[in-house]
User: Fold this.
Amino acid sequence: MNKTNEFNLKEHGLTVSEVHHNLPPSSLYEHAIRFEKDASIAENGALVAYSGAKTGRSPKDKRVVEHPESKNDIWWGSVNIPCDERTFQINRQRALDYLNTREQLYCFDGFAGWDPKYRIKVRVICSRPYHALFMHTMLIRPTHEELANFGRPDVVIINAGAFPANRLTTGMGSTTSIDLSLEGRELIILGTEYAGEMKKGVFTVANYFAPKRGLLSMHCSATADKNTGVSSLLFGLSGTGKTTLSADPKRHLIGDDEHVWSDDGIFNIEGGCYAKAINLTPENEPDIFQALRFGAVLENVVLDEDRMVDYSNVSITQNTRGAYPIEFIQNAKIPCLAGHPTDVIFLTCDAFGVLPPVASLSPAHAMYHFISGYTAKVAGTEMGVTEPQATFSPCFGGPFLVWHPSKYAELLAEKMRKHKARVWLVNTGWGGGGYGVGKRISLKNTRAIIDAIHDGSLAKSKTQKDPVFGFDVVTECPNVPSEILRPRESWADKSAYDTTARKLAGLFSKNFETYTKGASEEVKAAAPRA
Ligand code: ATP
Ligand code: MN
Assistant:
């Protein structure tokens, strides 16, 4: 389907005659090498591309059109900044005007959602071959037949990210703008070339339509048991281990980031994975390492003189990434569907070193922690700053929610109850002390914990109630040294532990204030005691 003259984008206001439709990766490689100013092919075969000034998402520049039809559904505020129809049209026109100055455009038509009943037809229009290859990798690739019968897309992403928005347009504060019209079914991107913006744009759209159909969309990775097909979910904010821990040779990979829970089970929204590439090694993460080869996109990495990827080089950004089609992971299950989850795991990277490596959560604790969505970031690179920063993001995916968090929380509670899923909190962050004193729990130990959850042994393990957080800390786990399982015991300075635990409990309580009104008595009682 790469004959350029048969296909055009006139219905979208684009008059460029040379439109490359669903080019295969090899062609997109050639286009990237010819037309991108700095693309190259790494020795491992991946296409290396650079996103320019923006190397991460721009949540402060994401707007949603305020429209009578959807107005009352939306959780307005800093996540969903309202934008009027006129501002949207001005930005849209600017994006089209820019794209119309290009000699050639790329269009990729693909699906979001592996369950044919619920899949969304997504069209991506862009000017950079790197963006087209990225979305070829991240969406579900249609067969020739599906493409021939694609028809009208449900959602169109118009990526003019190489061109800035006009700062002076009403309601705009910067030259970056990511504007979503739910009624127009369009996402307009200006002023950022970070490819992840398109991927999370699709997720945002899914997060609107899924609950409307009684489905729960979730920011989580998922794996399934190779024999029984039952699944397990790993929720978590950025950097907590969703992608890393879901690449597990003992299990089937369903997906690394975005899923939907329906009455039939779970399905992945995407056709690819988007892994952090920082300090990637074949020893620690063999499955991801080998997936970064021909057909994969490596973003913002630095090559050495032999054109080998230097994964330790973060001179462009800490957020280096690799995108690869999901079938590049050998044990991926295609199609990416699985049975109902038996275990739901909340990952947190607690840089305070307070939370235990693993705790079992009651339904009320599960809701409390789902609504809280806690993780911590190690503070920036400023000299002398070692104090971790707590981050709370409802449903472990605040930036991508469209409805109020309670909508997703209620759906999760209902599904977990119905399918009797066990819930766990797993700290992939620090132990033995906070950042600067203790150290991050090893991937080996976290993997052993996840294994013990999956084989059912942890559900039978001994636990001990945490005096501050109230959940049941697991105190014995096969292949994990017991001394690390009780965080207070792992700290040399017990009073420092108590102070830090109370401090973290206080941060939880403060964050939860906005949600107390809608929360049940049981959930409120699951709050930590500072
Ligand atoms: P995003 O939503 O941004 O994609 P993510 O949840 O998928 O984030 P990962 O890409 O899996 O996060 O990142 C986890 C990072 O932490 C990886 O670089 C991994 O190597 C590192 N890491 C170190 N120790 C652990 C651990 N014990 N468990 C999980 N990851 C760990
Ligand atoms: Mn990830």
